[in-house]
């Protein structure tokens, strides 16, 4: 089987999730190409070598540009903070490498436009690009999309989306790059709000047309981090400013006429990774909570009202999206499986010569929504996307 050489840039939380996906995908899914975990790139030689060893990469390098010159690298997988996405993605696409880029795609609309243009140039040469909005690949959300597409909800009136976490509710939690606008672009809005923008647009098969929002930073000064890994770190005695939002709330109008309410916060004490979506249509409703990710609640409004009620669908049947390649019914999947499904869809699209969704054009659309929310929060008025 033809090999697909992968270079991964970055090796923290997302790097670990992507590594697991590359390692596992060919063992559970029939793939048309065989991913080879060729090289990991990280700034610090010692840490990159240790990460390569731990995560299963054949070697480590410190200069990400060096991987673009290698014939054994066909894919560049970007798992670095947002401020580097545009530079790496555009260079990789121009060098003829397929790109999988972590979300949010960029820190600004201008960067996202340049990336979408690079992806368009590359597609003309058969080179593919995809954004890592992994939650699309949770089977229950795939089923939600199918039910909407099959008309089981009728005309969609409302979407209620929340992404609630609490990992910085403690004011003593140190400054991570995710709290630095220069590195992350925005805070809760881009980090987790971007996920619910993508997931709702995916489920509805619709796009957000206009928004009005507000944003808040509850803790404006935090200890600097002596060390940081994933979402936790060690605090030093010095402090620095938080330059991003801690919470972002907004209302939206979808092009198809639905109304949406969105809430993204890392201050929802007790909520660890509560990505929740409820959709209400003329014929029924859906509700999902990632903290119970193998379940989709479905209300069929066409049923006899004496017995109608929300039905708890356990999304672990072989006919549910992706599930047939895993465990027997009822055994369930976790956070990492969405990343594996993402890799599966990416590899299949590369082999078929099609654009894997979400494309960079889709990523740009999400970026425009984020920018419109920021503009609206500043002006206090509705903004077109
Ligand atoms: C932190 O809020 C974070 O790690 C996000 O950056 C990820 O995209 C999400 O999957 C989990 O939470």
Task: Describe the model.
The chain has about 375 residues and is α/β, with parallel strands linked by helices. The protein folds into two domains: about 5-135, NAD(P)-binding Rossmann-like Domain (Rossmann fold), CATH 3.40.50.720; about 135-355 and about 365-380, Dihydrodipicolinate Reductase, domain 2 (2-Layer Sandwich), CATH 3.30.360. About 35% of the residues lie in helices and about 30% in strands. The protein has ten helices and 17 strands. The chain has a nine-stranded mixed beta sheet with strand order 16-15-14-13-7-12-11-8-17. It has a six-stranded parallel beta sheet with strand order 3-2-1-4-5-6, sandwiched between helices. Helix 4 runs parallel beside helix 5 (about 110-125). It is globular and about 65 Å long. The N and C termini lie far apart (about 45 Å). The mean pLDDT is about 95. The chain binds alpha-L-sorbopyranose.
Structural class: alpha/beta
Q: CATH superfamily assignment of the largest domain?
A: Dihydrodipicolinate Reductase, domain 2
Count of separate DSSP helical elements = 10
- Which architecture of the largest domain per CATH? 2-Layer Sandwich
Rough shape? globular
Largest sheet: 9 strands, mixed
Strand order of the largest sheet: 16-15-14-13-7-12-11-8-17
Radius of gyration from the CA trace? 21 Å
* Total individual domains: 2
Bound molecules: alpha-L-sorbopyranose
Number of strands: 17
Q: Report helical residue fraction.
A: 25-40%
| End-to-end distance | 44 Å
Strand content: 25-35%
């Amino acid at each position: 089987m033809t090999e697909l050489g992968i270079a991964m840039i970055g090796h923290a939380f997302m790097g670990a999730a992507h590594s697991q996906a590359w390692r596992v995908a060919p063992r559970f899914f029939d793939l048309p190409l065989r991913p080879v975990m060729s090289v990991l790139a990280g700034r610090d030689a010692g840490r990159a070598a240790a990460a390569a060893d731990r995560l299963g990469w054949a070697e480590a390098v410190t200069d990400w540009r060096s991987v673009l010159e290698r014939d054994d690298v066909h894919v560049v997988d970007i798992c670095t903070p947002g401020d580097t996405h545009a530079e790496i993605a555009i260079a990789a696409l121009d060098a003829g490498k397929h790109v999988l880029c972590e979300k949010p795609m960029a820190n600004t609309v201008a960067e996202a436009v340049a990336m979408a243009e690079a992806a368009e140039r590359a597609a003309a040469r058969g080179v593919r690009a995809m954004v890592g909005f992994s939650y699309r690949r949770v089977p229950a959300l795939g089923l939600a999309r199918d039910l909407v597409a099959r008309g089981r909800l009728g005309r969609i009136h409302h979407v209620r989306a929340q992404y609630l976490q609490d990992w910085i509710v403690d004011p003593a939690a140190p400054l991570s790059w995710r709290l630095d606008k220069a590195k992350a672009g925005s805070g809760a809005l881009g980090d987790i709000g971007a996920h619910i923008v993508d997931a709702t647009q995916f489920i509805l098969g619709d796009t957000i047309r206009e928004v009005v929002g507000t944003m808040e930073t509850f803790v404006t000064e935090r200890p600097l981090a002596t060390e940081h890994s994933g979402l936790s770190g060690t605090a030093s005695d010095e402090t620095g400013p938080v330059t991003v939002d801690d919470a972002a709330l907004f209302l939206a109008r979808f092009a198809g006429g639905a109304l949406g309410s969105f809430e993204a916060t890392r201050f929802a004490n007790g909520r660890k990774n509560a990505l929740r979506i409820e959709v209400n249509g003329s014929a029924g409703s859906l509700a999902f909570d990632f903290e119970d990710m193998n379940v989709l609640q479905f209300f069929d409004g066409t049923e006899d009202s004496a017995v109608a009620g929300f039905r708890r669908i356990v999304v672990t049947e072989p006919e549910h999206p992706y599930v047939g390649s895993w465990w027997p019914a009822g055994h369930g999947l976790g956070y990492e499986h969405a990343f594996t499904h993402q890799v599966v869809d990416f590899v299949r699209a590369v082999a078929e010569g099609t654009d894997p969704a979400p494309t960079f054009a889709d990523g740009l659309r999400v970026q425009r929504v984020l920018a419109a929310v920021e503009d609206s929060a500043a002006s206090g008025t509705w903004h077109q996307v």
